[in-house]
Amino acid sequence: MISIDKITDIFCFIDEFHQEFEQAQNGHLLQTDCGIKRRNKKCKLSNSEVMTLMVLFHSGNFRNLKHFYLFYVKPHLKSEFPETVSYNRFVELQQKAVVPMALFLKMCCLGKCTGISFIDSTPLRSCHIKREKQHKTFKGMAAKGQCSIGWFFGFKLHLIINDKGEILDFMLTQGNVDDREPLKSDNFHKKIMGKLYGDKGYISKDLFEKLFVDGVHLVTKIRKNMKNSLMHTYDKVMLKKRAIIETVNDELKNMCQIEHTRHRSFDNFLSNLLSGLIAYSFFPKKPSLNL
């Protein structure tokens, strides 16, 4: 489990960001003079504490959020979180913390490009493929897609990492979206420079030329029915090292638990995904190539 000192460091880091976020938010809120008095009572658990608890859950060995909150946080972290709320109220507060959590991830938790990047997509299943027509939680949002393992129903998480295993950027799409579509958006690869290694699903002449103009050299393997092309030995070696992003996907799913089929709302799905990505950024040791 995470030490108390580490918990304190994570909370201080999140709380400093959230204080600046609240100051910026209060300056842009619209006020209505309708004469109705509104309560401005503070919650027992602040957004910083909710975000910290979500990060702790995804950093530990727990698989059930309710068990983690009731049987670990309340009895064992009482000195760090003295004023806790009921579990149902805690689930409601997660939805309130989604926006600051997303901004914290985008602004404070992403790595820096080193000139060597890897891209891949991984499925986030909403339910078993045989129950896709019965699924109601993500009706109209999730979609049926296909990956290297087979068919699935849910979403796709597109990731770009560097050679140190740090996440450079991410994008969530429906399961039926082509892997090349996110790269067509300038916002997804604006922080990327140098070589970008991907699998055969990213083969596209138009995409290669578009990225090359933006300063990104897309390197992929070739299909069996394609003509052989000359490739630098260094690029061939780095394509074999592309398994590093598969390791990152595996840690995100099995250690940070960004994928499970027990979601009851889309907001809680987002908070679960965002807090899992934040928890990964706090890992002391990430998969790396040691270049």
Automatic annotation (TrEMBL):
Signal peptide positions on this chain: none
Alphabetized Pfam families for the sequence: DDE_Tnp_1_3 (PF13612)
Stored InterPro entries: RNaseH-like_sf, Tnp_DDE_dom
Annotated Transposase DDE domain residues: 111-265
SUPFAM superfamilies referenced in this protein's UniProt entry, alphabetically: Ribonuclease H-like
Cross-referenced NCBIfam families: transpos_IS982
Name this polypeptide is given: Transposase DDE domain-containing protein
Species this chain originates from: Salegentibacter salegens
Lineage, broadest ranks: Bacteria, Pseudomonadati, Bacteroidota, Flavobacteriia, Flavobacteriales
